[in-house]
Specification:
By secondary structure, the protein is mainly beta. It is 2% helix and 54% strand. It folds into three domains: 62 residues, SH3 type barrels (Roll); 59 residues, Nucleic acid-binding proteins (OB fold (Dihydrolipoamide Acetyltransferase, E2P), Beta Barrel), CATH 2.40.50; 59 residues, OB fold (Dihydrolipoamide Acetyltransferase, E2P), CATH 2.40.50. Strands 1-6-2-3-4-5 form a six-stranded antiparallel β-sheet, with no helix packed on it. A five-stranded antiparallel β-sheet has the order 9-8-7-10-11. Strands 14-13-12-15-16 form a five-stranded antiparallel β-sheet, with no helix packed on it.
């Protein structure tokens, strides 16, 4: 199936130069002189490298033919191991294949593993995850919700900016697409 550059959106998977890419960012540009074009940042689905490319406005590109399998993250050693929830078949991916998703992967998490040409190439996380704060400076009495932010290391190793009143052990909701703190789900010890 083909799509026009007018249908580009973040996360769309396209074939470029015979390889599968995901659109990370795009911008429609209409210069005063000459034809309109679309400036894009494309991330290679297998290698993880990001390239810049410009498409003419209205140009058609092929969509990636991929299969999505619902899996469970089991554990991590030198690779990341997943199990298909229907067939119980296990696959493992390298840290490079996992990419930024490894920042939010916790054991037993349900994820979608994308297969291109029968081989697993990428992991797609849920948009939001709830993780406990493993390490942060202690909250001080009088800190307010509007006061400011501090870095907090989550149980998976990801570092996010959180309000000053949060403490270690608090469970927070994080947007996996942006790494942004969305709110506190539970307080430590309760």
């Amino acid at each position: 199936m083909q799509v026009s550059t007018a249908e580009f959106k973040k996360g769309l998977r396209i074939v470029f130069d015979g390889h599968p890419y995901t659109i990370v960012d795009f911008q429609h540009v209409k210069p005063g002189k000459g034809g309109a074009f679309v400036r894009t940042k494309l991330k290679h689905m297998k290698l993880g490298k990001v390239i810049d490319n410009t498409f003419r406005s209205g140009e058609k590109v092929e969509l990636v033919d991929f299969e999505e399998k619902h899996m469970q993250f089991l554990y991590r050693d030198d690779r990341y191991h997943f199990m298909d929830l229907e067939t119980y078949e296990q696959v493992s991916l390298s840290a490079d294949e996992i990419g930024d998703a490894r920042e939010y992967l916790q054991e037993n998490a349900a994820v979608d593993v994308l297969y291109v040409e029968g081989a697993p190439v990428a992991v797609e996380l849920p948009n939001f995850v709830e993780l406990a704060i493993a390490q942060t400076d202690p909250g001080v009495r009088g800190d307010t919700a509007q006061g400011g932010t501090k870095p907090a290391t989550l149980e998976t190793g990801a570092v996010v900016q959180v309000p000053l009143f949060l403490n270690e052990g608090d469970v927070v909701k994080v947007d996996t697409r942006t790494g942004e703190y969305l709110g506190r789900v539970a307080t430590a010890g309760r």
